[in-house]
Amino acid sequence: MNLASHPVVASLTPVFLLIALGYFAGRRDWIRESAVRDLSNLVFLLLIPALLFRTMSGVHVETLDLRPLAAYFPAALLLLIVSIAWRGFNRSSVVMALGGVFSNMVMIGITLVELAYGKAALVTLLTLVSVHALILLTVGSVVLELVVAREAREGGERAPHVLETAWSAFKGALIHPIPLPIISGLLFAQTGWSLPAVVDKPLQLLGSAFGPLALVLVGVTLARTPLGGHLKPALWITASKNLLLPLLVGVSAWAWGITGLPLTVMVVAAALPMGANVFLFAQRYEVAQGLTTAAMGLSTVLALFTLSAVMLLMTYVN
Fold first, then answer.
1. What pLDDT digit, counting tens, does each position of 86-105 carry?
2. How many domains does the chain have?
3. Which residue, among 84, 83, 88, 92, has the nearest Cα to 288 in the 3D structure?
4. Whole-Å CA distances, 268 to 9, 105, 316
5. Distance CA 235, CA 291 (A)
6. In whole numbers, what is the pLDDT of the chain averaged over residues?
7. pTM assigned to the model
8. Does the pLDDT of residue 215 top 50, yes or no?
9. pLDDT reading at 274 higher than 60
10. Which residue in 133, 156, 164, 268 has a CA-CA distance of 20 to 30 Å to 70?
């Protein structure tokens, strides 16, 4: 088979080409800093919900395979706990550990998985996406608040109760433009109705605009990401995110007896580069912001090689 026509190469090439074009546009300042936030809001508040709702509106709950949830998240949480224990119980450690387990499933993953494996694979990915932030970001929030509470006690200050923090994190992750349209779409599908054409067509057009714009925005963000002074720790985070997590998820999926397309989607999802939500945590807790930004950029750049290798490997495993 010609390498250029290999399914993995054929699906990865447009993804990284669009990211490269976004990087070029960012370096040329064609998309200025002030416009990036507005474009990000367009993607997250309009395009993503349209795509997610339309995709899940035809999926019946009884056909869903929930084993990927049971296999993926224990592996991710185990790596998170081990990473925190290895680095120490402090704000920087928790943010770095979160960077090593939180995948960019939406901005990169949705487009890549649909291109490489089709609509059936997208259902498996969206099953993971529906609780990905809910689980990992809630756990991350609680652990970070425990660290802050310990610091407050050591400083003689009053800290908020951990249950209050957990509930706040849970609500923030659930009432969000990613899980809400997934859940709404699933609920609509159970009615047995189908979307009328006057609704379905606009949703289709909005959803089709998501992939190119999201990938170009990833490239624009990379153009403004400095790596200086953070290369070594950023490499450790990247190794965890791009290589160790997919290995652990693959072993966990094998233990659950998951094979075929669901196994491939799970491992590829775990091998995706680091998601931008981790940087929001670094900002909120005022720690490791430069390192987190550098790790996100390095993880995305090196994914060109690590993700290609993982996807090629999965073609032989299955």
1. 998 898 999 999 999 999 99
2. 1
3. 92
4. 14, 10, 14
5. 10
6. 85
7. 0.81
8. yes
9. yes
10. 164
Identify the domain containing residue 266 by its residue range. 3-317
**126-175 confidence digits (pLDDT tens):** 889 878 877 887 788 778 877 877 777 666 666 556 566 666 656 655 56
CB neighbours of residue 17 within 10 Å? 12
What is the tens place of the pLDDT at every residue in 104-117?
A: 998 889 889 988 89
Q: Is the pLDDT of residue 3 over 70?
A: no
What letter represents residue 93's amino acid? S
How many other β-carbons are positioned within 10 Å of the β-carbon of residue 3? 8
Q: What is d(CA 153, CA 94) in angstroms, rounded to the nearest whole number?
A: 19
CATH number of the structural domain spanning residue 218: 1.20.1530.20
